[in-house]
Amino acid sequence: MFLKKTPGPRTVMLSDGSVLSLADLPDPGTRWVASRKALVVEAVNHGLIGRDDAIRRYGLTDEELDAWVRAVRRHGRHALKVTQLQKFRQL
Question: Can you tell me where the transmembrane regions are (predicted)?
């Protein structure tokens, strides 16, 4: 088995003790649900993928990724659920 060379780490340890790898990241054409958004945010925050790489890979805008990161930082993963937008929206 051959491993493709990557510029950064292949796995990172999350704060809860779990391991996140490149293979755990969602496919680029994915349907966005809160758990997949949270995986991308964790990967960026822990240095598994770079911010620019995440934006390019998933076709996100700077503002969209910033909103995900901000929501997780302020309110946790539940803030990424579409049904919770109204609850966590800043006035």
Answer: none
